[in-house]
Amino acid sequence: MTMESAVGCLKEFFKKRMVVGILLGQFLSLLVTSTGFSSSELARRGVNAPTSQSFANYVLLALVYGSVVLYRRKPLKARWYYYILLGLVDVEANYLVVKAYQYTSLTSVALLDCWSIPCVIILTWAFLKTKYKYKKFAGVIICIAGLVMVVFSDVHANDRSAGSSPLKGDLLVVAGSTLYAVSNVSEEFLVKNADRVELMAMLGLFGAIVSACQVSILERDELRSINWNAGAVLPFVGFAVAMFLFYSLVPVLLKMNGSAMLNLSLLTSDMWTVLIRIFAYHQRVDWLYFVAFFAVAVGLFIYSWYVHFQLHFSQISPFSSMLINGMAWHGILFITCMNYVNRLKNKRTCD
Q: What are the C-alpha distances in Å from 152 to residues 67, 108, 143, 172?
């Protein structure tokens, strides 16, 4: 094989890898949106059982992937206590974020999830020795500034759609996103050094055990008080199925492109959540939220600027492509939502 043919094959490989990464990332983004929608629906119905929502997902993971591990009859590639710690962190991350829907809006939860990005960058730099250029940190700082604006947006909003206690909900999301970052980086390390099926089986097993203990302590009375009709059961089932698919596919993207790309690809879930809030719930979004949204988009643009001009577009990495892709979707959604808000204002003026 000549050098030119080898380079051509390598370019073709990365093109396919880029397309698969983008498509898989966007499918995961839709799954995250569906879990947020399910949690928001349960919160609207007065159901407050965040750990119970995640319990079914962990049971499914343990049953499906645990069966494969038992069939293989091979020793674990990673120490068992690593999986216990990972299960504990993951359960509490899900608990904090799902709990936040009781206090703040769907859009705020979606955008504040971006806090996991700087956390992932710091953790991968510190523990996985991933190298980042200093110029990229300017983009991260601007993204964080946008997240701070979300908190002020929720405090500033006077309408009921913001939630019963927006500031408390926002802090819960930030704490949960930090734990998500720890979980994502740990999963990236394990999936690259151990085994994906083993990871899912052990995470499901210990996640189910931790969840069961937490449910028995914190949510027994809540589960008894729920009116188990179709309106309550369907969001529970939808949440469990979406989470199972999400957890099953996340290790694939982690092995291909890493935890930073995973978190960046999930940024486009903001697009879907804002559209759901405006068109499905008919709720008003505070103007400061759009400023925050624009700040996050600018931060992503600055973050990807260095890579975009250093590499030829045909040779750009899947990670950098996802950065630009996420930034573009943020810009499109910002313009779309602003146009919609302006049309609403003009309609009210005419009326």
A: 48, 11, 15, 15
